[in-house]
Amino acid sequence: MKRNYRWRTEDGAGLEHLDLQQREDVIVAEGTVICDGPCAFNYRICCDSGWRVRSVEVHVAGGKSIVLTTDGDGAWRDGDGQALPHLHGCADVDISATPFTNTLPIRRLGGQLGQRTELLMAWISVPDLAVHRAPQAYTRLPDGRYRFEALDSGFEATLEVDERGLVRDYPGLFRRVG
């Protein structure tokens, strides 16, 4: 099953198109993002059937690229196969300029998010592609909403998601338009 989604930034200056394909054994997300300012990038995230991230690639237009792989249990490697111990224990990936990556822990944990759940993310900033260990928390709220917390910065948002766990509204940042 393949579906397409689109988000626009709240200020209207950025746009994302996502092709999401879910097969029996793999989930593949391929997105193209035009950021606010002089930045555009493509990403590809592959997950196993349980929504555990297995690989991520990000390619900035006219610039850098990054490839990361993980065993799905928190051990990460770069594109050359070198271990990335600073990411040990990170369960998911969070790319700074897309709301799609919020779907990963929502789908992977499902009903476990009824309680506030703290997670470690491999956070990729765009366009510099620096990768940091980022503590975050998710809590399921009523009516298809989740509280998202970036624990290292104090940022919080209440995300509205659809029945598939994809963001419809990320207040102040993104709104789904297709």
TrEMBL record:
<dbReference type="Pfam" id="PF06475">
    <property type="entry name" value="Glycolipid_bind"/>
</dbReference>
<protein>
    <submittedName>
        <fullName>Glycolipid-binding domain-containing protein</fullName>
    </submittedName>
</protein>
<dbReference type="InterPro" id="IPR009467">
    <property type="entry name" value="Glycolipid-bd_prot_put"/>
</dbReference>
